[in-house]
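Protein in question passed on here:
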Amino acid sequence: QVQLVESGGGSAQAGGSLRLSCAASGDRYCSYDMSWYRQVLGKEREFVSGIDSGGISKYADSVKGRFTISQNNARNTVYLQMNSLKPEDTAMYYCKTDRSYGSFCSQTSGHWGQGTQVTVSS
């Protein structure tokens, strides 16, 4: 069973930066396409950014030019560098495995982390 552990959330002033990390564990043979989502209490969870095995990244329009997604070489950890933060970026941030791959990987996809809170004050 894949486990995702997020870290790096916290509080920042508007215009500041935070860096989120999410490490996947449970199968050393697996690499993952991964993504970040966020959710404000009472609203639906929304896509923020994703990255695939080719290093191709996608971003929500609301974060383009401010956030950067990346992975480690093993492609089992994903990062989200968040710059020029705005109060509207305040949310619980979740990472997700979109696709599991690898010669001996037997994990399914679609696993979620427990979330890390980001709070941006004006």
